[in-house]
Amino acid sequence: MLTYATSGFSEDILSDSFCQTWFGVGIVVGMVSIGTSNFLILLRLWVLWDRKTRLVLVTLSLFLVTQITAIVCTTYVVSSMMPLVVFEPYLHSCILTQKVNFVILWTPGIVFEFMIFVTTWWNALDQPLPQHAKMAKVMYRDGSIYFFVLFGLRLLNLILSIVSPLSLMFLGVFFIWSACNVTLTRLIINSRRAAVEAEESLFIDVYTYSPRSWPLLPRQGSCVSENYELQGKGPDIEICTRLSSSVTSVAT
Fold it and tell me: Which terminal CB of the chain, N or C, has fewer other CB atoms within 10 Å?
């Protein structure tokens, strides 16, 4: 709809109210989409941090504060922008007739992502050998890509909103929206892949057979499947204990 309204390729004559509605909807849905992506990243990080209460509370509080601020700022920007959006018949496009203060639209997201990035790497340095090594590798690699891409694009949009002419105000908006979804999808797919690999590795460790076909004891700690962590659950120590006991009795 936004392409239809702003590309200039359509020969339809649109109303100003149509332009105002879809500009507002586009900004709101875009900010909600990015906020949802940030929360999904936060859920993955909580798993990686073994749900340490202090870290969870601090990052959750930061997320709530920045998102509430973003909602207030988005509401203000959309309400200020509405009267300034009109349809230009000569260009066959919806246009913004005057600059709006988009600086406040990008600032909360920049603050949140920077603080999460610092917290993640501070925790990584504090615990350089996390228990869930495969997931940690995925999160630190793809999470860093996610951070640098989104942080860079937010910064670009922030700079454009300050120094650019009116015609370039929306230059980076759709880049950050699409890049957010692409990088988040990459992270989730890779974390799922790490989960499958961890589950297969656990299966091989537990059901290893000797030449006499007697099951051997699993390696110490191998029963704590990383897949539990990737699915948002804690390691099932009771199941591990029963499994080790049953394998011991069979081997005996």
Answer: C
